């Protein structure tokens, strides 16, 4: 692997940009591996990377049906935050945030992490009480947070509608929140994993599992059978489909979540703003595009398009926050298929099949968890035991009733 | 955008409806004989198919009544609309 540096950039510039090597090999599947990861999104790639780097497993394959980063990793709105309520969640997402902060230098790949802060607004007295409660929980769990009144919010976010349909009377700022270039996260992990010997196999669809005596023995793919007794799956919205191939069900419903990007503009917004009344959040990318999203299309879907009512609601919410954006032209709209569970807490760890491990249930917020999700799944695959940070996220919690109900506690919109 | 043919009000836009999730889930019982795993299955586990899905819908801003539909979760094509207590329609490929 060529290390990227100012020097390598200069040298390539002087030789006409002709000597760049591909960032990862286009591998073909072998007959067997020590560990296989299904899903070439952020979580899968991070898992493969940490399997090699932390646990020293080099004979590892990553299988991706399409191309890496082509699913939700390339479709999300790139927000990174850890404003959750329960200690288990805050610890986990804070760990992810910490890994994100050092990721560019660890991977020698600029993921363009920008710590621009994230605002959550309150529109009424009850909203303020929710924010106070949230701030207290975060402070108690050791995550930095600031609470400001409406006047200060408007001073800090120039351009915010002074007289919106839903008035802004307070705001909660997580200064460590930010955004990162989502493609770069996928590509950086892929390059890092590849350099450590992981085979990244694209255009390779999983068609079934070889299971004997309740244990996984291998995986059947569109490019041949692969023998392996330790398999991790990180396939987000398609988790139920993959589980069905392995003969079990999951407490997951798949929904389409839409996102939108405008034409690029000069810098107008230097932070991330979320308005709970409309469920709309917006930031401006480094390229200058407004990146925003809203609520789920609230019926089960595997269509990566989204439907009009949710689009209309998101655009209306954006214009209520920033009326001047009504004249901005939208460039693109799309949807990703998200894996929603009842308590909005991920599922990480064992499945009903021995040797097959789960990384799913991220719902609308998988991107911010990528480093931690990969780290913990790699730990589970390599050691057979859950990582302490993810021990509470087991599938078994739906049977025991030990749910971590972030859906209610931190006001997640679905 | 879905155009849903309410059995009582006729075809109306998706705006007027709310999806109530998977249909034909029977509550297990009697409660004292139901194991934790069965409760979990009833409360949380869903088929979540990629393809035909049998689901309940409510005409919230219309007649306010519930009914079942069979809808493909990939192309959203609705292939059957039937009553809450009607049996499952024949599955389509």
UniProtKB/TrEMBL annotation, chain A:
Broad class of where this protein is predominantly found: cytoplasm
User: Subcellular location, in the record's words?
Assistant: Cytoplasm
What region holds the Rhodanese domain? 36-79
- Superkingdom per UniProt: Bacteria
What's its catalytic activity?
A: sarcosine + O2 + H2O = formaldehyde + glycine + H2O2; sarcosine + (6S)-5,6,7,8-tetrahydrofolate + O2 = (6R)-5,10-methylene-5,6,7,8-tetrahydrofolate + glycine + H2O2
Q: Which UniProt keywords apply?
A: Cytoplasm, FAD, Flavoprotein, FMN, Nucleotide-binding, Oxidoreductase
The protein's Enzyme Commission number: 1.5.3.24
Cited InterPro entries: FAD-dep_OxRdtase, FAD/NAD-bd_sf, Rhodanese-like_dom, SoxB
Regions that span the bilayer:
none
Asked if the keyword Cell membrane belongs to this entry, the reply reads: no
Task: Name the coenzymes or cofactors required.
Answer: FMN; FAD
Which enzyme class?
Answer: oxidoreductase
Keyword check for Isomerase, yes or no: no
Pfam families attached here? DAO (PF01266)
> Its family?
Belongs to the SoxB family.
The protein, known as:
Sarcosine oxidase subunit beta
Q: Which organism is it from?
A: Sphingomonas colocasiae
What taxonomic lineage is listed for the species of origin?
Bacteria, Pseudomonadati, Pseudomonadota, Alphaproteobacteria, Sphingomonadales
Automatic annotation (TrEMBL), chain B:
Domain of life from the UniProt record: Bacteria
The molecule here is called: Sarcosine oxidase subunit delta
Pfam families linked to this entry = SoxD
